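request received
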Amino acid sequence: MRCKDFEKKVLDFIDDKTNILEKEKIEQHIEECEKCRNLYMDFIFILNMSKKIELPKLSEDYWKSSIKSIFEEKNSIKFLKVAYVAVSFFILFSITLFLMKSNIYFSKENVLINKLDLLNHELPFSEEEIIDNVDYMKEEEIENVLELVFESF
Amino acid sequence: MNERENFEDCYIKLANKIYGVAYKMVNNHQDALDIVQEVFLRAYKNWNNFKGLSKISTYLYRIAVNLSYDFLRKKNKLRKVENIGFENWSNLVSSVKFEDCIKDEEIIEEIKKEIDNLTEKQKVIFILKTYEELTYEEIASILRKRVGTIKATYFQSLQKLRENLKKKGVMKNEM
Ligand SMILES: [Zn+2]
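response:
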């Protein structure tokens, strides 16, 4: 085995991922070649020492309690989204009202029908469903919807 | 299991791992905790896309690595290792054969510093391989790089640590 080949194989050898044949050749090269033996031993030394670097210990309880803050932060975002939706609905409602009022000048009957329509018409989604759906929207998407609404003014 | 329980379960299982990577990347407890928080907040926001994935950890690692990069860049902690003027000093100390008389803790401290001195690519691959004990294939899919590249970079990082630790006299100087 040449030193170049050894260098290519040494990492797999350290991971114990070489086949028996390769393993024998590598072990033989380690015995014969001082340069590669040093490289191998140094890598092992560095890896062993690196693994001794300690992390501050954090228990499972710590993580269990810290998860709350994620939900809280998420909820505050959800609240923002709900606010966005509320504003959008208000704007849409205003537009409808505005259109309905402008209808008055054309026909009073139409307005009546429109009003009845509005009362009888069932919304396709419950409020909860809307909020749930909005949750799947990215903030930018909501912003796009808002933009469209504003443009229609 | 409902969505929230499902997320909680994943959080409890993986938060400590993500923390480990973040801590070793940014070398600071509080900053690492902030990164963990941000990683999972982002995951939770997109949980509907996340929960179907077979290897959620791959994506969490990826976010953690990216946030750590961002953090380090912002903190301007990333330094290119140019050990100019190091040579003479290191020759001097190496003859003393430091290794025999310094304690493990000091060696570990030096290694920590040298890990910090790796390039960001070398550093993250070193951390994921050495500490998280991920395979080259897993790291490749986290970093979206070729397996060969990951392996070569890992070798480079070990070589670089070795060289620099020798220059510092932490390890014997025979190459
Ligand atoms: Zn050799």
